[in-house]
Amino acid sequence: MMIKKALDYFGKDVVFPHSIAGLPSKLSDVEGLEIGQFKTNDGVSLNYWKAGQGTPLVFLPGWSSNGAEYINLIYLLKEKFEVYVLDQRNHGLSQKVNYGNRISRFSADLNDFLNATNIKKAHLCGWSMGCSVIWSYIDLYGQDRIEKLVFIDEAPSIYCHSNWTEEERINAGAFTSSAERMIDAFQGRAPFNSLVVNTDLFDFYNTVDAPSFENSQFLCDAVSPHDREALELVQFDHILNDWRDVISHKISKPTLVVSGEHSNWLESQRWIANIVPNGRTLIYGKHEHGDHFLHLKKPQKFAQELAGFLTE
């Protein structure tokens, strides 16, 4: 177990391209930021970002994302919570390995993280694949260590079975009929059409009118650039899981489901909030970056609404 001040860990400060009122203009503006490291029970070194005090709030980023992209949210929430962002295996600052690249192992990593940091109970906030990791964690370990849950725009099942009804597909949020073709599309190796991979997600992976997202992307590129080969290893397993049974039968904690009008699987987000006993939705409009990256593009709005839900 290791923990260092962020500037000591990186050996440098990073100045962001935009100065935005109420947000950090450089890495050192995030006072008390630390980088921790621990080993999982299968011997992998994982890193996490930490700042603040109060009730633990643990972020599980989406596929290819990491703690650097959460720098604005860490800054905004650290006065109310002890904020953690886990860099999952093969992501961000964590070790790159060619084993354990399954969502079930990622959820075991989350359990190892809670044990290593001695977190007895925490709010868990997942985005995209991070939601799947939390669903797997609940499936395997239950909810005893969870206070409240927040899920940001993740389809309960990415893969669409050919014998499903259209209602099943919509509730599941499924948008591909081929895991291999979807991986090729995400890795930029081959073109795709909407009969194989039906998403315009790539259209919104940009920083147009989102300077806070540009800042966090800049930090990511500076300190933890993506390793595309390492990231690809978990994609196949991630695509093929169907979490509707966990969502329907194993979640009872207060749950906030966040999505936007640009989301390709918006109806599935409403289905999640309706099926869990204490669920509600927060839907961003198209005019307020209501796409898959909404919490990173509108961090101030998201932080305020997240804190309101967690502290009510």
Describe the secondary-structure layout.
Elements (H helix, E strand, L loop, with lengths): L1 E4 H5 L23 E6 L5 E8 L2 E6 L10 H7 L3 E7 L15 H14 L5 E6 L1 H13 L4 E7 L13 H7 L6 H8 L14 H4 L6 H13 L4 H5 L2 H6 L3 H6 L5 E6 L5 H10 L3 E6 L9 H4 L1 H13 L1
Parallel strand pairs: 4-5, 4-6, 6-7, 7-8, 8-9
Antiparallel strand pairs: 1-2, 2-3, 3-5
Helix pairs in contact: 2-14, 3-4
**Strand order of the main beta sheet, please?**
1-2-3-5-4-6-7-8-9
Distance between the termini: 34 Å
Low-pLDDT runs of 5+ residues are none
- Supply the CATH architecture: 3-Layer(aba) Sandwich
Question: What share of residues are in beta strands?
Answer: 15-25%
- Which series of helices and strands comes N to C? EHEEEHEHEHEHHHHHHHEHEHH
Large-scale geometry: globular
CATH level 3 topology: Rossmann fold
State the secondary-structure class. Answer: alpha/beta
Tell me the name of the CATH class.
Alpha Beta
CATH superfamily: Alpha/Beta hydrolase fold, catalytic domain
Number of strands: 9
How much helical structure, as a percent, in the residues? 25-40%
The average pLDDT score comes to 97
Radius of gyration: 18 Å
Biggest pleated-sheet summary: 9 strands, mixed
- The figure for the number of domains is 1
Number of helices, counting only DSSP H or I runs of 4 residues or more: 14
GO molecular function: hydrolase activity
Protein name: Alpha/beta hydrolase
Keywords: Hydrolase
Domain AB hydrolase-1: 56-186
